[in-house]
Amino acid sequence: MKKDLLSILDLSKEDILNLFDKADEIKNLWRGNKIYRPLEGKSLGMIFQKPSTRTRLSFEVGMYQLGGHPVFLSPGSMQLKRGETIEDTAKVLSRYIDGIMIRTFDQNEVIKLAKAATIPVINGLTDLFHPCQALSDYYTLWQRTKEMSKITLCYIGDGNNVCHSLILGAVKLGINIIVSNPKGYEPNKEIIEKAKKINGKKISFIDDPLKAVKEADVIYTDVWTSMGEEREEDIRKKVFLPYQVNLNLLKRAKKEVLVMHCLPAHRGEEIVDEVIDGENSIVFEQAENRLHLQKAILVELI
Ligand code: CP
Ligand code: NVA
Question: 69 catalytic, yes or no?
Answer without folding.
Answer: no
